[in-house]
Design goal:
Elements lengths: L1 H17 L6 E6 L2 E7 L2 H4 L6 H13 L7 E7 L3 H10 L3 E6 L24 E4 L3 H15 L1
Parallel strand pairs: 3-4, 4-5
Antiparallel strand pairs: 1-2, 1-3
Length: about 150
């Protein structure tokens, strides 16, 4: 079941690449229903906070009518950064699935280990590696073209 949602996130990442955005996609689901799908929109919006996770959280909040996102799961093609990890924690998202690590900015394990941050009021469960190869290749191909 999890792969179904990561495939949707991957499709969002492909949309981002087509729009010359960093190809990261995100899906939020609850009880087997997709609440939101989104991809990076930093370039389009000329706004540094328009990451896929933020876009997806905002859409899901509108749909739910509350910022409390307990029992929601987030699927994203790249390990969330510190900003997105903060939004995930503050939204009370229950579980995060990410495809591949971000060695330059990942806040779930790579650069910062979210589990080691004491004093925050919510620690989502997380799992990495779902569709790692496909998502990693998409990012590498995008940045290869940029150079």
């Amino acid at each position: 079941m999890e792969e179904k949602y990561m495939k949707m996130a991957y499709q969002e990442a492909l949309k981002a690449a087509e729009e010359d955005e960093v190809p990261i996609g995100c899906v939020i689901e609850r009880d087997g229903k997709v609440l939101s799908k989104a991809h990076n929109r930093k370039e389009e919006k000329q706004n540094a906070v328009r990451h896929a996770e933020i876009e997806a959280i905002e859409k899901a909040v509108k749909k739910l009518g509350t910022w409390h996102m307990e029992d929601c799961e987030l699927y994203v093609t790249l390990e969330p950064c510190l900003m997105c990890a903060g939004a995930i924690v503050n939204s009370r998202i229950t579980k995060v699935y990410y495809a591949t690590r971000d060695p330059k900015g990942g806040a779930f394990k790579s650069v910062i280990d979210l589990d080691e941050l004491k004093g925050i009021n919510h620690h989502p469960d997380w799992e990495e590696g779902l569709m790692r190869e496909e998502c990693s290749k998409l990012l590498k191909d995008y940045f290869r073209k940029k150079r």
